[in-house]
Amino acid sequence: MFGILRLVIFSGGAFAAGVMYQWAGAAEACKEAGGTMQSGICRGVAANG
Q1: What is the DSSP string of 29-40?
Q2: Which pTM was predicted?
Q3: Pairwise CA distance, residues 27 & 36, whole Å
Q4: Integer CA distances (angstroms), 37 to 2, 11, 15, 22, 46, in order
Q5: Digitized pLDDT (tens) for each residue of the chain, 49 residues in all
Q6: Of 18, 42, 14, nearest in space to 28 by CA
Q7: Contact yes or no for 19/9 (Cβ under 8 A)
Q8: Which residues contact 43 (CB under 8 A, 6 or more apart)?
């Protein structure tokens, strides 16, 4: 029983760490493009195309 609980806890922690890593990367890319992050959306950068 403890093994299943440990698996769920570690999987959730790994997922949360991955989400935070991706969010930080997106924020950095937005900043480098001259925009600002507002509510998880990059604002102030024109789309290519």
Answers
A1: HHHHTT-EEETT
A2: 0.67
A3: 8
A4: 40, 28, 22, 13, 14
A5: 789 999 999 999 999 999 999 999 999 999 998 899 898 889 988 776 4
A6: 42
A7: no
A8: 35, 36, 37
